[in-house]
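step: validate -> pass
step: tokenize input -> pass
step: predict -> running
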Amino acid sequence: MAITDQLKELLEAGVHFGHQTRRWNPKMRRFIFAERNGIYIIDLKKTLRQIQEAQGLAADLVRQGKQILFVCTKRQLKEVVRAEAERCGQPYVVNRWLGGTLTNWQTMRKNLVRLNELEGMRADGTAALLPKKEVLSLERQGEKLQRNLGGIRDMGELPGAVLVVDAKKEKIAVAEAHRLGIPIIAVVDTNADPDPITVPIPGNDDAIKSVRLMLGMIADAIEDARRQMVKEEPAEAQPAAVEEPGRRVRKVRSQRGVTVDEMAAGRPGDERGSETSVAEELAGEAPAAGGGETAAAVAGVGPVGGGATVGTQSPAAGAARRVRVKAPGETDSASPEAGAPAAATEEPELTPALAGGRGEGRQA
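step: predict -> pass
step: emit ->
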């Protein structure tokens, strides 16, 4: 809508009419356009500018998930304020402003809980089981709470802003909001003080048509912001797929293969490296002891051709190893590769002590 059309609507609604010149507040001078027949005329361009600023503030607060509290206790404007507040889904106070509604919110919250309890008792039939006198007392209590707090029963916390019609009449609500630092949007006439108001809207705060037009413009901005919030809500997250027990995948850390040389030499700094090199040490010492034996025979793999074996203890490995010892008269030529039969070896004679030990072990 063009600015000219909006100004025309404001003019037709009588928003420009102020109070008499003798009932004015000098702080409202900057919003006054002229004086006609003892009545101040409000500058509608400034009114429209303030309405647009109030629309932006209210829309931003609603997008943040906060509520705007509508406040007006004038008799002729109650229904107008209630209708606009309910249309945009905001709380309201239109009967009586209870002192401490904002500054003593914890107590007010208890009253709201009590109101919900009374309505619950009436709904489930619990009140019908009580004595008649007690039922009447509960009904009067519920009606009083509904009359004063029915408009804010869904307000779970302090509002994001307070929208007041006639800031002079609702001075207690303005003072509480100003004390708590809550932004205030108020329709102020020429007899009101605009200093404590965050966004003052100069205009006629007595005419029904004037108030309905200004509140309707702000309510439209709030409703658009709520509709935009619904569109911008992210889609519900899809449930995660459940893995089947038989198809569970295990992550195994990849390991590098170990070569034969590394197994023989051992890892650096590892004690097992000295154990794997015992065979090489024995193979190097074997020629000095008997000469001509292979490394496998020295390491104690088993008797190659024949002969007695003697158990030896390796200091590095700590395990018993068997080393082949040549039998008397055996030569190097007697080997399986030459085709000659292996020479029979005589079992060494046992000492009497060892023989006695064997006999005792057998007898046992």
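step: describe -> The two ends are 120 Å apart (CA to CA).
step: cleanup -> pass
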